[in-house]
Amino acid sequence: MNDFGVRQVDAVVVGAGQAGLSAAHFLHRAGLAADRDFVVLDHAPRPGGAWQFRRPSLTWEKAHGVHDLPGMRLHGADPAQPASEVVSRYFADYERAFDLRVHRPVDVRRVREGAGGRLLVETDAGVWSARALINATGTWERPFVPHYPGRELFEGRQLHTADYRGPEEFAGARVVVVGGGTSAVQLLIEIADVAAATTWVTRRPPVFREEAFDTELGRAAVARVEERVRRGLPPQSVVGVTGLYATDAVRAARERGVLERLPVFDRITARGVAWDDGREVAADVILWATGFRASLAHLAPLRLREPGGGVRLEGTRAVRDPRVHLVGYGPSASTIGANRAGRAAVREVLALLAEQREGPRVPGDRAPVPA
Known about the structure:
Layout: E1 7-14, H1 18-29, E2 38-41, H2 83-97, E3 108-113, E4 119-123, E5 126-135, E6 157-160, E7 174-178, H3 182-192, E8 197-202, E9 208-209, H4 215-230, H5 239-242, E10 244-245, H6 248-255, E11 261-263, E12 267-269, E13 272-274, E14 280-282, E15 285-288, E16 313-314, E17 317-318, E18 321-326, H7 335-358
Parallel strand pairs: 1-2, 1-5, 5-18, 6-15, 7-8, 7-15, 8-11, 9-10
Antiparallel strand pairs: 3-4, 4-5, 12-13, 13-14, 16-17, 17-18
Helix pairs in contact: 1-7
């Protein structure tokens, strides 16, 4: 800490979800000590990243696979236990095992230019001065709801999947579910068992795949997202590439007619939704399963965004500022991608630190990173 109360570290990791913990682990493995050489700041009240906020009805057996964090396996989970509890416990154990000393809850308000080529990370818990920043803030805090005419006129309830806690609150209601992703399908199936009626609307016709998600399909999905990020465009959902996997529950719902889809409506009325062709559907609830956007507002002073609205990256490094790395963003938003991004970001950060301390490296030299 300097004379002005600013704590100085080599690196600040913002966010302690999968990507942030992965990055912190590799910093630790490289010989850097938490709270001395680097610090991890997390906005959430408890360990678990965004998983701690998932609905209780999302059990471990229903959740998308969570890849093991580097250096510690997740095993022995009860398939019937809420995934929020399983992952939160695992993340808490991980933080203790590697002495990552996560500071929480800490609200990172902004990151701006500091003195001597450093970054100033301003929070509600003080200010840190860092040579590098690894941003792993994810998307959970920025649920996205598209604008449709008449939305403010609707007399029923509107909520986003981030606010969904379970199907019981929809008993006897007429529910419109908006969105074509996996969450929309899962929630629609849950709600259909208790609701008076459900209507599913999507922008594009859904494509259900009978075969399991494979490596080739995964590469195609990641490649599409990578291309957008290279062009400085905001990342988009990969469902358009992968399609929706037809689980037993999905097949049963299709047989019952639950997954009959309509094109998205043109406007919202006081008592439902309507299309320009004259069709109307009455509704008590509109559930927006329309995804999330990256939480990057605190980075605005650094002017990282491109004209297309996204942050252009080379690997995990922001093109506009090589001190800043985004992990869990775009192509690294999956759990396995987050692990790889954490390792890649730390490799780049160590190289940057070595260059700042020792001068420019010989071309081809690479900073060591633990395996």
